[in-house]
């Protein structure tokens, strides 16, 4: 029978990873579905008992979301409006059972093109903290996910936290997801955005789109186009199709590539209109 | 740090401590069920998609199939078995019982646990909060409405009293077998497998079409300790099964060639651990992929390769109905409409995968299995095993949903052959992907239709041809190809009809029976015609249907003159006020709406109850023992639709004793009589009539014994049977009677076979003794920019003859309706691409519209108290109504279902250009 480790301290986990090849298990909501009808033959490092990895903390210049923080933990946490978009995404992850078990970090490590956590965190300029037995470092989320199911993580590393920088300017954020049914649905497309507003104008905008490329992407052209625009309920009208050129959607069982682009534009307009209308 | 391979740990479940020794990575669901014997928690997918396995961990709902047991240790686990306190049902459980919120009951443990989580935090939730809390639990039976009603009523729910003697029929009686579904005690296919049973795992084809060679299986088995045997085609006594007595074309295990992806090739039998540890790649088998015939167009193309060598043109069956001269009649029409429609494979997606176990007892074979049709299983197993029928015993377990998908053999022949050869009990539970890949589907269709009416809106002619993809083997293909032409002109009087139905073989899983047997596909076509003709002559769409609705005295397309119980006109009248209100509301909404538009649509249907132009009898027995035990021997399987309850209601009133004095023996082929299969909406009508006759028979025998008058009131107290009539009280002690019928001293028996006649070459005849009718309307909201559709409201008016139990009738309408919604908007099975419940989408609680049922009771003289059937009718008019509503909202007529967002968006864009 394979090995199963369930350490209570991060150092023990990292020591184990330094010595052997383990599959990291957090909430299991991606791990088990990938093994339906198959033997559970991996050596497992279960990180769910490491108390220090769980929860959202405010630190000097950033917010720290521990690796085993669940979607439900995040929804329940008292956080500034900056996190509204991420919380909306959390509420749309699967059903409540999945939100109660699944971790935000697991969503990033699993690196699905349809991971709902990625676009909002991209628009928060999130970084991830990576640790191994020798120490830890941080890297921008945009650089962490390399492709469909591919990340920078090495076998001996853990993602220990997600870090969201605080901003000197008040920010608001929003998120919209499109699926072919209510609840428990893989996104056809989703859009997240954050705005910094100054004197009724957009000081800076960040927009990201998911499910329309192997990794969710920010839209720098759109972000540039929005800067300086008046903040109103029709802010989204400044978006144009060519702002979305960075995307490369595919046809699959859920939707056509053409539709995905079209829908991403519509969702993005709505998200921005909604943000622009907030007073 | 806890560490280990074979770990020992303590688990706290429902307030009790358990010791567990085993893998810490084992799914909590498997530990609960297999190690702790708590089988109330169900497994429908092992992937988080269905929520049947939902339990509480420290009071919060999680999927136990996604939880490593190690993560549950040191925490409090609550399962459905823990909801009742000191054997007293919780208010929530009582509310489920009273509202009929459990049909088959397989989702119920998950629903109850998720709801308990919500109610522990919020005593008075809103409907939206209930939806948010239950969004992760799928139900395929109820349409969710009664579940929500029950949860909102949890605070004050009491158990209702059993209906009084003589007033069972028509009562909103809760299910007679309802309580075990709420406590977790009910035993489904996977729940009562003996601990010492061997396990069977099937190896299946990864290709649509391939030849294969098998290596040395004996050597493979010898090299794998714990594998007792690997079965191949050679081990099956008669390697062919199929629904029709003369078409046994599907092998139990493929012999050298596979004809669909998911076809069974080999069966590994051994200890559970051993068969589960083998990976497919280790098994000595070499496939050579061959070109596959996929889709109707490929199968029907001239010179197409043949799927079955002896079926020219890949045609399984070509069925016709011809009345009058349709082709010529179009010339005289004031308006003619014409179009083609396309539908895809639809998966039954019952939450309970196929499961069961078999055991050889001497020269007999006993099979315990989840099934809709024990007697057909028995007869088919006798053929496969080359045994006499009497040597086979089928004991149906509770069935966690069927919808037609459990009418074909699944695990039965595999475990049957294995148990017979090995002399030990053998069990098999399909995984969800295996269930989806190998089980039957709704037939994909391509339907062309042309119809015409005169200036007053009267239909004159309909010409239609429906082609179906029947997959690699016949299954129920012939039924679909004959049923569809009969129903193809819709529930309308049409003087000239030409209708054709053809089924083609392809290299896909067999298409089989699915709620409506092809009629839902046909209804999409004929209802679109009604809308278009109405628009062309400038008539209201409902009024157009009223003008043409079949009524008593009219002849159908097969020339059958309906003499009674044709209640479509009443259904349409009942719908009218709702229709008018919805049209006005949509118009008002659309005045100001920009991106979202609302529309209202209507669909009508008729549906012949029971087998098509074939004998289709049922026999029911009611026994009374010398001790005064009253037993309903019921060969009809209750798959959640409520036949146990409805038959008890009918039996109780026919006999004159209260419902709660009956116990039920269901489906066991050794103990009951053949009641036919649970399909074609037939059990209330056919078995209901049989049980009415059985009840009257037993009553006559009792009255004879008591020398009491025909209208005497009976009571049964222990072994004393008493009658009160004008002469006073009579009594008789049953203890005096010898047990002449096994357990029983007295037996009432009844049989009923609805009168039909064979169809001639033009399809003319009396294919069904009676028909159900319905009209439904849908209100939708279309997001025109995204192409998404939200169904806001459904009003369903159904002529059911007599609602023996309105709760069950509504439940069938709700459940059928939401399956129709799935057909219209999201369900599309693509072989090899959607073999799970996240790529194949069925409606969740959030997709449920507000549903209202209107029951019309135009009595059918042949049926019990006038009743007909309602199992399938709710599904049939739903997609047509939704499609009509989408058109009303957007101006776009969708001719392909499902109307996925990208399809609708493309059509809207095209229309705008
Ligand atoms: C029914 C269902 C519905 C779902 N719906 C959605 C949805 O709507 N949107 C969505 O985005 N996702 C959805 N998911 C996917 C899943 O729930 C999320 O991705 C979840 O956040 C994963 O977290 P986890 O803790 O369960 O991960 P796990 O399954 O425990 O792990 C996921 C992967 O990440 C690795 N990993 C986890 N944590 C770490 C770490 N700290 N360091 C290194 N590696 C790590 C694991 O080794 C594994 O490969 C759904 C899943 C299910 C079953
Ligand atoms: S069995 Fe766990 S969600 Fe389906
Ligand atoms: S009652 Fe919900 S799945 Fe059957």
Please give a quick description of this structure:
The complex is a heterodimer of chains A (279) and B (913). Chain A has helices at residues 10-19, 71-76, 84-91, 96-101, 104-110, 118-123, 141-144, 220-226, 257-277, and strands spanning 4-6, 23-25, 44-46, 56-58, 62-66, 127-132, 135-140, 145-147, 150-151, 158-165, 171-178, 189-198, 201-210, 217-218.
Question: How is this fold's topology laid out?
Answer:
The complex is a heterodimer of chains A (279) and B (913).
Chain A: E1 4-6, H1 10-19, E2 23-25, E3 44-46, E4 56-58, E5 62-66, H2 71-76, H3 84-91, H4 96-101, H5 104-110, H6 118-123, E6 127-132, E7 135-140, H7 141-144, E8 145-147, E9 150-151, E10 158-165, E11 171-178, E12 189-198, E13 201-210, E14 217-218, H8 220-226, H9 257-277
Parallel strand pairs in A: 1-3, 2-3
Antiparallel strand pairs in A: 4-5, 5-10, 6-7, 6-10, 8-9, 11-12, 12-13, 13-14
Chain B: E1 2-4, E2 7-13, E3 16-22, H1 28-35, E4 54-57, E5 60-63, H2 69-72, E6 76-78, H3 91-99, H4 108-121, H5 127-134, H6 145-152, H7 179-183, E7 198-204, E8 210-214, H8 217-223, E9 227-231, E10 257-258, E11 264-270, H9 272-277, E12 285-289, H10 296-300, E13 315-323, H11 326-329, E14 335-343, E15 346-347, E16 355-361, E17 364-369, H12 374-385, E18 392-396, H13 412-422, E19 426-429, H14 432-438, E20 441-442, E21 445-453, E22 459-471, H15 477-487, E23 496-505, H16 519-537, H17 541-548, H18 568-592, E24 596-608, E25 618-624, E26 630-634, H19 643-655, E27 662-666, H20 683-706, E28 713-717, E29 720-725, E30 728-733, E31 746-752, E32 771-783, E33 788-799, H21 806-825, E34 850-856, H22 878-890, H23 901-912
Parallel strand pairs in B: 2-6, 7-19, 17-18, 22-23, 26-27, 33-34
Antiparallel strand pairs in B: 2-3, 4-5, 4-6, 7-11, 8-10, 8-12, 9-11, 13-23, 14-21, 15-20, 16-17, 16-19, 21-22, 24-32, 25-26, 25-31, 28-29, 29-30, 32-33
Helix pairs in contact in B: 3-6, 4-5, 12-13, 16-17, 16-22, 17-18, 19-20, 21-22
């Amino acid at each position: 029978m394979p090995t199963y480790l369930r350490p209570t301290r991060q150092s023990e986990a990292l020591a184990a990873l330094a010595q052997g090849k383990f599959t990291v298990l957090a909430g299991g909501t991606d791990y088990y579905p990938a093994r339906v009808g198959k033997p559970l033959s991996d050596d497992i490092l279960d990180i769910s008992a490491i108390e220090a990895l769980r929860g959202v903390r405010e630190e000097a210049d950033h917010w720290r979301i521990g690796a085993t923080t669940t979607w439900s933990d995040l929804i329940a946490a008292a956080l500034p409006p900056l996190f509204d978009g991420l919380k909306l995404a959390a509420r749309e992850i699967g059903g409540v059972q999945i939100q109660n078990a699944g971790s935000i970090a697991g969503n990033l490590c699993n690196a699905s093109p349809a991971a709902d956590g990625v676009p909002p965190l991209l628009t928060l300029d999130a970084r991830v903290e990576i640790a191994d037995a020798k120490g830890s470092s941080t890297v921008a989320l945009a650089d962490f996910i390399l492709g469909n199911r591919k990340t920078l993580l090495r076998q001996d590393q853990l993602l220990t936290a997600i870090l969201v920088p605080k901003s000197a300017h008040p920010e608001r954020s929003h998120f919209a997801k499109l699926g072919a049914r209510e609840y428990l649905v893989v996104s056809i497309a989703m859009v997240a955005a954050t705005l910094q507003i100054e004197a009724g104008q957009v000081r800076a905008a960040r927009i990201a789109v998911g499910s329309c490329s192997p990794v969710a992407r920010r839209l720098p052209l759109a972000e540039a186009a929005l800067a300086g625009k008046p903040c109103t309920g029709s802010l989204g009208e400044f978006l144009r199709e060519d702002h979305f050129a960075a995307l490369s959607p595919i046809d699959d069982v859920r939707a056509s590539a053409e539709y995905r682009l079209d829908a991403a534009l519509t969702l993005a307009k709505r998200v921005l209109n909604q943000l622009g209308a907030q007073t | 740090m806890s560490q280990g391979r074979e770990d020992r740990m303590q688990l706290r479940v429902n307030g009790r401590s358990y010791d567990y020794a085993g893998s810490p990575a084992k799914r909590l669901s498997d530990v609960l069920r297999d190690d702790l014997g708590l089988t109330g928690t169900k497994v429908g997918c092992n992937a988080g998609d269905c929520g049947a396995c939902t339990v509480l961990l420290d009071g919060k709902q999680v999927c136990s199939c996604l939880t490593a047991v190690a993560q549950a240790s040191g925490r409090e686990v609550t399962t459905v078995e823990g909801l009742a306190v000191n054997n007293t049902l919780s208010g929530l459980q009582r509310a489920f019982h009273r509202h009929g919120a459990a049909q088959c009951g397989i989702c119920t443990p998950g629903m109850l646990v998720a709801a308990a989580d919500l109610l522990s935090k919020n005593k008075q939730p809103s409907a939206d909060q209930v939806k948010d809390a239950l969004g992760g639990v799928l139900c395929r039976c109820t349409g969710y409405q009664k579940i929500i009603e029950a949860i909102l009523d949890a605070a004050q729910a009491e158990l209702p009293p059993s209906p009084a003697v003589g007033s069972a029929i028509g009562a909103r009686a809760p299910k007679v077998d309802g309580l075990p579904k709420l406590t977790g005690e009910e035993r489904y296919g996977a729940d009562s497998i003996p601990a010492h049973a061997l396990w069977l795992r099937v190896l299946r084809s990864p290709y649509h079409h391939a030849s294969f060679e098998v290596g040395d299986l004996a050597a493979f088995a010898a090299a794998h300790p714990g594998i007792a045997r690997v079965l191949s085609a050679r081990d099956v006594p008669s390697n062919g099964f199929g629904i029709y007595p003369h078409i046994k074309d599907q092998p139990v295990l493929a012999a050298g060639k596979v004809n669909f992806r998911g076809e069974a090739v080999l069966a590994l039998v051994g200890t559970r651990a051993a068969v589960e540890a083998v990976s497919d790649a280790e098994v000595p088998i070499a496939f050579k992929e061959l070109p596959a015939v996929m889709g109707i167009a490929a199968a029907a193309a001239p010179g197409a390769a043949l799927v079955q060598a002896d079926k020219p043109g890949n045609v399984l069956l070509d069925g016709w109905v011809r009345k009058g001269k349709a082709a010529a009649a179009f010339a005289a029409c004031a308006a003619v409409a014409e179009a083609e429609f396309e539908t895809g494979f639809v998966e039954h997606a019952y939450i309970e995968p196929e499961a069961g176990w078999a055991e050889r007892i001497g020269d007999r074979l006993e099979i315990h299995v989840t099934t809709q049709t024990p007697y057909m299983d028995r007869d088919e197993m006798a053929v496969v095993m080359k045994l006499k029928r009497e040597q086979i015993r089928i004991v149906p377990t509770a069935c966690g949903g069927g919808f037609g998908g459990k009418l074909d053999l699944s695990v039965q022949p595999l475990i049957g052959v294995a148990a017979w050869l090995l002399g030990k009990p053998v069990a098999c539970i399909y995984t969800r992907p295996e269930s989806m890949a190998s089980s039957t589907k709704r037939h994909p269709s391509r339907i062309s239709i042309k119809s015409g009416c005169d200036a007053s809106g009267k239909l004159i002619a309909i010409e239609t041809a429906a082609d179906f993809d029947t997959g690699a083997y016949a299954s129920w293909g012939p039924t679909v190809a004959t049923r569809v032409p009969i129903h193809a002109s819709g529930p309308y009087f049409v003087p000239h009809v030409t209708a054709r139905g053809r089924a083609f073989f392809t290299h896909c899983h067999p298409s089989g029976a699915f709620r409506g047997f092809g009629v839902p596909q046909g209804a999409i076509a004929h209802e679109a015609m009604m809308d278009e003709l109405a628009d062309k002559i400038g008539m209201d769409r409902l009024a157009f249907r009223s003008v043409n609705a079949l009524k008593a005295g009219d002849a159908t397309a097969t020339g059958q003159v309906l003499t009674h119980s044709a209640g479509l006109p009443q259904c349409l009248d009942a719908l009218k006020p709702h229709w008018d209100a919805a049209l006005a509301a949509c118009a008002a909404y659309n005045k100001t709406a920009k991106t979202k538009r609302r529309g209202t649509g209507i669909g009508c249907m008729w549906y012949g109850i029971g087998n098509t132009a074939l004998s289709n009898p049922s026999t029911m027995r009611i026994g009374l023992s010398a001790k005064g035990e009253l037993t309903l021997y019921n060969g009809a399987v209750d798959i959640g639709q409520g036949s146990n309850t409805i038959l008890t209601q009918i039996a109780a009133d026919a006999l004159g004793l209260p419902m709660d004095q009956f116990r039920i023996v269901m489906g066991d082929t050794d103990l009951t009589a053949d009641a036919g299969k649970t399909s074609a909406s037939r059990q209330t009508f056919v078995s209901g009539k049989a049980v009415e006759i059985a009840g009257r028979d037993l009553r006559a025998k009792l009255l004879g014994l008591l020398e009491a008058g025909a209208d005497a009131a009976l009571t049964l107290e222990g072994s004393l049977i008493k009658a009160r009539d004008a002469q006073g009280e009579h009594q008789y002690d049953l203890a005096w009677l010898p047990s002449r019928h096994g357990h029983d001293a007295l037996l009432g028996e009844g049989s009923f076979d609805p009168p039909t006649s064979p169809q001639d070459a033009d399809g003319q005849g009396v294919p069904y003794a009676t028909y159900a009718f319905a009209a439904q309307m849908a209100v939708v909201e279309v997001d025109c920019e995204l192409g998404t559709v939200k169904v806001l409201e459904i009003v369903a008016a159904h002529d059911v003859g007599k609602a023996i139990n309105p709760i069950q009738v509504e439940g069938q309408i709700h459940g059928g309706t939401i399956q129709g919604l799935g057909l219209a908007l999201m369900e599309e099975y693509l072989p090899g691409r959607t073999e799970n419940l996240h790529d194949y989408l069925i409606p969740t609680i959030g997709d449920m519209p507000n549903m209202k049922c209107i029951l019309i009771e135009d009595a059918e003289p042949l049926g019990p108290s006038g009743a007909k059937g309602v199992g399938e009718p709710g599904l049939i008019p739903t997609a047509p109504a939704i499609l009509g509503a989408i058109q009303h909202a957007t101006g776009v007529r969708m001719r392909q279902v499902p109307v996925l967002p990208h399809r609708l968006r493309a059509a809207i864009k095209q229309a705008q250009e």
